[in-house]
Amino acid sequence: MGLVTSGKMSSRLLTKTLRVNMLVSAIILLLTAPLFYWITNGLSVDDADEALLFAKINFSQYTQPTLKRDEVADWNRFNRDMHLFDSDRVINQDTIYGRFFYDSLSDENEPYRVLEAPITVDGREYVFAARMNLIESEDFIASIAFLFLVLIICSIIGMYWTTRQLSKRLWRPFYETLAFVERFEVDKMEPQPALATGIAEFDRLNQSIHKLIQNNISIFAAQREFVESAAHELQTPLAIIQGKIEAMMQRQDLTEGQGEMLEKLENAVGRLLRLNKSLLLLSKLESKPYTHADRIGLHDLIASQLEFFTEQALPRQIKIVADLQGQQWITANHTLTEVAISNLLLNALQHNIVGGQVLVSLRDGTLRIANTGQPIALPQQQLFTRFAKMRGTTGGNGLGLSIVRKIADISGWRSTYAYTQGMHVFEIQF
Amino acid sequence: MKILLVEDEPELAESIQAYLGANDLRCEIAATVSMAIDRISMHDYDCVLLDLGLPDGSGFEVLATLKHLRKTDGIIIISAKETLETRIEGLQAGADDYLTKPFHMSELLVRIQALVRRKQFSGQNIITFHEIEIDLLTKSTRVLGKPLDLTRKEFDLLLFLVGNDKKVLSKSAIAEHLSGDFADMLDNHDFVYTHIKNLKRKLSDAGSGDYIKTVYGLGYKWQNV
Fold it and tell me: What confidence tier does B183 reach under pLDDT thresholds 50, 70, 90?
């Protein structure tokens, strides 16, 4: 699950960076494209003008001195882009302007730069006109657009690749830290991510997380110690109360009403004592490792417990049906295994209905305990937490299932809950 | 019978003393390790009830002294420290039984009785109450000389009731006694009623007196008619 989440996070970071980068580069390219067109266009016009002036200089140096008046018509015939006109207008100096000419070859109006200059051939005033074909602006814009498209695509591919590589390499310590934080449970020791990653920000992050975790661990330890000593200190006064109640019960002058009160007091003290014991057990489970392991025959262990619970089930007409297939051996702490299984069985009875059922089955290394009860699925999240009491149920101190979960965690078992076919199903996979 | 109670909590010691005293068990109290060692070196006790957490040391020191003096006193550890390790440690150090605090006085009483019976080699294996004979070795019962067929639970219950003669036993005390290791798992005490009812019927069918009294609002009591 951690992997999937971190994978999703990484792509989100990647696309975010990519999206911003792509947007910025697209805007830049779109803004620079007209500028590029304007500059290039200006350059080509300048170039054409220069070429026209050269053509005129060329004419006046090599052609003009030798050209005769009657040769002008022939000269005009052989030059497509240069002409000599009779000067019907007065042109005092060289003029260059842009103009469209119809081109019969391409059946289009083509842009031209035109130079008109006053000239004297063989003593007669003429107008020298030269024209220069320009690149058609439509073609020009199309070319530029194509060029910029290629640029945009190239830069996106480049950016995608670099961002991915970067996020893979640069952000790796970050994802390691993230995965660690996701896995972190205050009562479990996990190797912490390296403090020195080579990137100042991540070092800071890891150091802060390290500090936070140390704080958490010490607060958790203090809380555990508090629960343990509180529960421990409660034992003696509770024992005194219980002793006094028992002494009181022996008095001859008790009325029936007083007797009933005493019984209720005794039951309440009994509940307190059991709650206290469960709290002590829980904090012990959290504080010290249970390393002692025995070889346990699950079949026999469950069968011996069923005897007790079958008797407990009788007054409420709950039927316990057991389907234990052969002996299954596991290696675990005997006391803890017993506690876990009996807590599950007790839970199945406590949250049952009068005339209900408990199905116990053991097969393929899985213990399955299903019971009838309130016809609603229980919230998975809270079910195994302390004091997660369900509405409409009586009895139980709200610690049974958290003890089961704790023992399962310690022993490396999987404990699950499901609500199927009207039954609450608890499973332990050993 | 003489009992030494090593317990530093005066209120609890007083309760135990009162309960046991009513059953002819004379109870002396030692509140510290040094007091306890003084007492055991001067007197012999049938049974020593030993708390482990004492103001001037651990109950294990008293246990060691008892073993060192080669005393044969029966020893029951009564401790609030409920871990498997301390239990095993205590039994290995020579304690005969281990009772976790808090406990029912009635439970303590039958444990002491059982221990003292085991320690006395005179073959005190048969408890007699008028026409009822309880054989602890064969776990069998006879009424008016004829065998009475009891289940294991009913036998335990009879022994518990007879051992706490004239004492009012609450349903929870009986339930916890009958449940043994499962006492912490008790959901309700209704099953006690069934066992009591069956035992009563079997006893009266066999011609025994009706010794089991129902104490309304509280529980049951074994009482001479």
Answer: confident
Residue A367: DSSP 8-state: E
Determine the residue among A236, A302, A344 to mutate to test chain B binding: the one whose Cβ has the most chain B Cβ atoms within 10 Å: A236
State the ipTM, two decimals: 0.85
Q: Which residue of B has its CA nearest to A311?
A: B191
User: Across the beta sheet with A95-103, what order do the strands follow?
Assistant: A82-86, A124-133, A108-121, A95-103
Strand partners, B79: B100
Contact call for residues A409 and A396 (beta carbons, < 8 A) = no
Instruction: Calculate the alpha carbon distances from A219 to A186, A212, A386 in Å.
Output: 10, 10, 18
What burial letters (b/e) apply to B79-107, b meaning 16+ CB within 10 Å? bbbbeeebbebbeeeebbbbbbbbbbbbb
Nearest to B187 among A240, A254, A346 (CB): A346
Chain A: nearest CA to B98, how far in angstroms? 16
Q: How confident is the model at residue B202 (pLDDT cuts 50, 70, 90)?
A: very high
Contact in structure between A115 and A60 (CB atoms under 8 Å) = no
Q: What is the pLDDT of residue B143?
A: 94
What residue spans of B43-166 are helical by DSSP H? Answer: 59-68, 84-92, 105-119, 152-163
| Residue B222 touches partner A, C-beta closer than 8 Å | no
Strands B47-50 and B74-79: parallel
In one-letter notation, the amino acid at residue A308 is F
Of A243, A315, A395, the CB nearest to B190: A315
Can you tell me the distance from the alpha carbon of B159 to that of B133, in angstroms, rounded to the nearest whole number? 11
Per-residue pLDDT at A163: 79
**Whole-Å CA distances, B94 to A1, A7, A135, B61, B78:** 54, 62, 113, 12, 14
Strand runs (DSSP E) across B12-165, as ranges? 26-30, 47-50, 53-54, 57-58, 74-79, 97-100, 126-129, 132-135, 140-143, 146-148
The answer to whether B220 contacts chain A (CB < 8 Å) is no
Asked if the C-beta of B105 comes within 8 angstroms of chain A's C-beta atoms, the answer is yes
Rounded to 10°, the helix B152-163/B105-119 angle is 100
- How far from A154 is each of A26, A127, A144, A148, B179, CA to CA, in Å? 12, 52, 15, 10, 80
Residue A66 pLDDT > 80: yes
